Amino acid sequence: MHQIVGYHRPATISDALALLGDGHRRPIGGGTTLRHDGGAAPVEVVDLQALGLDAIGDEGDHVRLGATTTLQRLADATLVPDLVRRLARAEQPSTMRTIATVGGTIGAADPDSVLLAALVVHGASVRLADGRDVALSAVLERGLSAGDLIVSASIAAAGRGAVASTGRTPADTPIVAAVGRLADGERVVALTGVGAVRRVSGHAEIDQLDPPGDFRGSTAYRRHLATVLYDRVVAELS
Questions:
Q1: Residues in contact with 14: Cβ distance below 8 Å, sequence separation at least 6, in sequence order
Q2: Tens of pLDDT along 115-160?
Q3: Is 154 exposed, middle or buried (0-12, 13-18, 19+ CB in 10 A)?
Q4: CB–CB of 15/55 below 8 Å?
Q5: Alpha carbon of 237 to those of 161, 162, 164, 201, 233: distances in Å?
Q6: Smallest Cα–Cα separation from 222: which of 176, 159, 170, 177?
Q7: Among 46, 75, 146, 200, which lies 20 to 30 A Cα-Cα from 67?
Q8: What is the rounded distance in angstroms from the CA atom of residue 179 to the CA atom of residue 81?
Q9: What are phi and psi of 7, to 5 degrees?
């Protein structure tokens, strides 16, 4: 558990960046998660709610999602692709969706996040406050550096989606899920529950996965599920 010893609510992005230059400070949007690598060390939080980063914008063949856009707003936005809207609804209970944000979901990098998988197959890139655009897949693989501030994400608007998942109950977070998208003849599939949300291209790549086992499923079981669910998504998108 983090010991929060300070709270800041900057009015501008430059003020937020100045605050985040201190390694003991971490950004929060809705405040449902806190990315902090310092163990139990005290931490100060920088609340981003006053920065106006909650817009959803039409950019032609892409849609831009502000970092503090809530998951409920994402789920309700007709501008957003159906697959992303559907999995935004599945990401959190309704009470949490009104608080949790796009930027927070990306920063948390939950390996079980079906929403992150939807963003990955929609070719998401993450824009940081310093102007850099970084592929979401790279952010999930390498993480963010202290002081990095997500201001938005951009996703491709077109395509047809498919989802296949296995959980202990329909309401549970899936043990493993496969999320796919077909656009302009190109199929992209991403998996959850295999150690990290990751894009895969076929059985050979899945066979190389080494997901950590837990009470919900062993490493071998998760790898088996990944193969079966991948095939279901591929068949649906064929």
A1: none
A2: 999 999 999 999 999 999 999 999 998 888 777 899 999 999 999 9
A3: buried
A4: no
A5: 7, 7, 11, 14, 6
A6: 176
A7: 200
A8: 14
A9: -135, 130
Q: From the centroid of its chain, how far is CA 171?
A: 19
83 Ramachandran zone, left/alpha/beta (phi>0; psi -120 to 50)? alpha
E strands present in 49-156: 56-58, 62-66, 125-128, 133-135, 150-156
Q: Please give the helix or strand (H or E) that residue 16 lies within, else none.
A: helix 13-20
Amino acid at 64: R
Q: How many CA atoms lie within 13 A of 26 on its CB side?
A: 23
Closest CA to 125 of 116, 109, 137, 114: 137
Length of the chain (residues): 238
pLDDT, position 21: 84
* Phi, psi dihedral angles at 17 (to 5 degrees): -65, -40
Q: State residue 36's pLDDT score.
A: 46
Residues of the chain with pLDDT under 70: 1-2, 23, 30-40
Percentage of residues of the chain with pLDDT beyond 70: 94
Phi/psi for 67 (5° steps) reads -60, -35
Encoded amino acid at 104, one letter: G
From the number of C-beta atoms within 10 Å of its C-beta (0-12, 13-18, 19+), residue 81 rates as buried
Enter the tokens of residue 75: 């789920």
What's the number of CA atoms in the CB half-sphere (13 Å) around residue 233?
32
Please, which residues bridge with residue 140 across strands? Answer: none
